[in-house]
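Shipment paperwork, digital attachment
Item: protein structure file
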Amino acid sequence: MNYFIFFFCLFLLASCKQPLTKEKTESKLMESMSNYLNNEPKSKGKINFTVNSVAYFEDKDAYLCEFKVRMLALERDKFTGIRIDTTGIMKAKITKNFSSVNRIY
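Attachment content:
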């Protein structure tokens, strides 16, 4: 009987979901946004996005985020011969499981 109680308690401890730390949450949000931006059909292979930082608010069912993003064109401009390189702010709503990204313009 003691073994049953021991393994039951061990099972309960192992199955409890640990909350994400602030650093892990930021990392997951940045990874989700980066995957979303770099896999868009319009920009795939033409533009590289790098997510530099994130500020977020945890809502009931999603994260409301503001990202600082660097955009680098992989091809040179046909007229000027330079590559476009800029940094800007993008906003998005990301679900709690980090699977769905909805950009807010």
